[in-house]
């Protein structure tokens, strides 16, 4: 039986519908439905319960998938290993990360990655809504957070430091604060995340932490929009170093209170690569991970 058809069963089971599986695979939903029905006819069992809202595995279907899934994965790994043993890595890799980080940090690396690995095609899903790696069939996800928890394997690519940034024009009309508490009466630019819109945390060189309540008339969901608003002189914004390093270098943005470590949550945030398995990671994904660690590490 065609292994692609068997692999399709897993895609449909993960997505819970023919339409979602078809969207993931860029195929027609009716073709996906026919392929599943063909497998069911060959095997002689009904693999999915069908309803108007969602598909679910039958008891027989669940047992069947449990038996064939390790075989499919082993065959795919063996095929990739054979293809790349005597040559460069090849295949299709899916990665997901936030919009701002993808635009600012990953897109500038694409030329070099393509030059180094011309036989790898890369699909980047940029979204500020965290994706499910297993359901979405992603090889890698990049998360901007403290140390991740859960079943996924993680590797820290870089540390993130935050800055309270303003434009030179803002400083022309406002006094720079000498202490974090002076921000309490300042109209700040806020990000629409619970931890970012209510208080910022500052840690001085002695290790003492100052929790400062913040307020402002503008709340924006996008870090890119926050940076743009800060550049226009609309107020101080809490922004990651990777988002403002170029603007600070050329003087478009200035860091306030830079003798302090600053964050909205914890001071140990970073950029983490997440992936489902260390031992079964395809070589095409491994070289992407190593490339990102090489280029993004600090």
Automatic annotation (TrEMBL):
GO terms for molecular function: DNA binding; DNA-binding transcription factor activity. Keywords: DNA-binding, Transcription, Transcription regulation. The keyword Cell wall biogenesis/degradation does not apply. Residues 1-58 form the HTH lysR-type domain. Pfam families: HTH_1, LysR_substrate. Gene3D superfamilies: 3.40.190.290, Winged helix-like DNA-binding domain superfamily/Winged helix DNA-binding domain. Belongs to the LysR transcriptional regulatory family. This is LysR family transcriptional regulator. The lineage of its organism: Bacteria, Pseudomonadati, Pseudomonadota, Alphaproteobacteria, Rhodobacterales.
């Amino acid at each position: 039986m065609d292994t692609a058809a068997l692999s399709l069963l897993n895609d449909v089971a993960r997505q819970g519908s023919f339409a979602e599986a078809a969207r993931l695979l860029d195929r027609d939903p009716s073709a996906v439905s026919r392929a599943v029905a063909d497998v069911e006819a060959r095997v002689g069992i009904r693999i999915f319960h069908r309803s108007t809202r969602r598909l679910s595995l039958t008891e027989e279907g669940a047992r069947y998938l449990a038996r064939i899934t390790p075989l499919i994965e082993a065959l795919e790994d063996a095929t990739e290993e054979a293809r790349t043993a005597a040559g460069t890595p090849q295949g299709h890799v899916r990665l997901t990360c936030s919009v701002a980080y993808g635009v600012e940090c990953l897109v500038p690396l694409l030329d070099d990655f393509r030059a180094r690995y011309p036989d790898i095609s890369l699909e980047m899903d940029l979204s500020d809504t965290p994706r499910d790696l297993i359901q979405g069939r992603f090889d890698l996800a990049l998360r901007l957070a403290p140390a991740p928890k859960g079943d996924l394997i993680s590797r820290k690519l870089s540390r993130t430091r935050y800055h309270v940034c303003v434009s030179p024009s803002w400083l022309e009309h406002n006094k720079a604060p000498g202490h974090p508490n002076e921000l309490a009466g300042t109209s700040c630019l806020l990000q629409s995340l619970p931890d970012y819109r209510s208080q910022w945390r500052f840690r001085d060189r002695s290790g003492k932490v100052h929790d400062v309540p913040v307020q402002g008339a503008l709340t924006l969901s996008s870090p890119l929009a926050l940076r743009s608003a800060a550049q226009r002189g609309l107020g101080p914004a809490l922004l990651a170093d990777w988002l403002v390093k170029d603007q600070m270098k050329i003087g478009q943005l200035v860091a306030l209170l830079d003798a302090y470590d600053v964050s909205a949550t914890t001071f140990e945030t970073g950029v983490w690569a997440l992936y489902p398995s260390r031992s079964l990671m395809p070589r095409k994904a491994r070289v992407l991970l190593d490339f990102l660690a090489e280029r993004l590490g600090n």
